Sequence to fold (461 residues):
Amino acid sequence: MVGTTDGMSNNNVYLNGGANGSSDEKVDELRHLFGKADGDPLRIVGVGAGAWGSVFAAMLQDAYGNLREKVQIRIWRRAGKAVDRSTAEHLFEVINSREDVLRRLIRRCAYLKYVEGRLGDRTLYADEILKDGFCLNMIDTPLCPMKVVTNLQEAVWDADIVINGLPSTETHEVFEEIRRYWKERLTVPVIISLAKGIDAELEPEPRIITPTQMINRATGVPIENILYLGGPNIASEIYNKEYANARICGSDKWRKPVARFLRQPHFIVWDNGDLVTHEVMGGLKNVYAIGAGMVAALTNESATSKSVYFAHCTSEMIFITHLLAEEPEKLAGPLLADTYVTLLKGRNAWYGHKLAKGELSLDMGDSIKGKGMIQGVSAVKAFYELLSQSRLNLLNPNENKHVAPVELCPILRTLHKILILREQSCDAILQALRDETMNDPRERIEIAQSHAFYRPTLLGQ
Fold:
């Protein structure tokens, strides 16, 4: 993937996004932008403690936690979420398999409670174990100890930077509450959203609502102070220092210094000005990842069947990007990279696989123990509703008639019937691939490339 960061004369920055500036220098740059005085630390708060939100906060704690006079990092999660007995037993096994973790807990006088949790003599809670570095959605990957706050007002009222680690389905509600705590503040915070999901708004015009737009509406924070960070990343692998890259998207004022602040030797952060489009692409790939998991399970991991599915789903994604973006070819690399890693190891593909195997059911909902929110389910509903609107009708040259865009997306239609309407079983995804009337995926791409399908109103532009 090619970075979009402009070349800079600063000797501390490499063109590929890597930085050799010290932690002090990167913190001081942000402190200067926020107008922080000596003795007034930069306050960073993670809101939401799923896998990626927890890892993101832990990475910042690892990188900057030693600069306590300059920066303070904490994370908010709801109190009261009990850890069940089987998870407590597994957590105990993880602790005892890692000598560094075991020694750390013993030094902190925190080991005994995990023994009691393993024996069933004590109930552990998610916020309690997070303080010791254990995310409930990612027990197998111990993190560093963190400052955890369960009172939302206490967590955010004086925050300079807020990291949105919530699912898109919870973002608006929580940030509406946050707005009440910001009524008296004089400074405007910067918000970095990690959420990959969308909602659809059908009136007065059909359009997509992204998490950054939800935050803007809920809080009144100007959109130039709201950024999106996304990329082809698996949270546990990033914390274990597997090489990864991401893009932070948003206004010039904030995205470049924040990108430099977030960069680490194993985590390269590029920057881009196209906020909403990249955000929507992060939600789109989750739709098709669920179907990929189903195909893998139903065909016993057939490489041939998975490649057939990949050809069809990528052609639909390319078609949809031509509706959403004026220059969709610029999105091809980031979208395919994010789709690839999600199909390989993401929770949405995992969810589709478990559904097709009968190990999960739709009645269990889309918030799954040990995985968190499966955001692809709500994204299927949103994209289907949006692309079904007759106001968006376009010419299908093969049939010489106008149709809703969703009619040219058979995989999306099938996933909607399986996941939302529940009219068909997971087997329907294979039937859709084997439908003799289905066009060559190349033709769908040619239709998209040869017709002016771009609908700027879909992104509120």
Notes: The first strand starts at residue 42 and ends at 47. The domain at 280-459 is CATH 1.10.1040.10 (N-(1-d-carboxylethyl)-l-norvaline Dehydrogenase; domain 2). DSSP finds 19 helices and 14 strands in the chain. The radius of gyration is 23 Å.
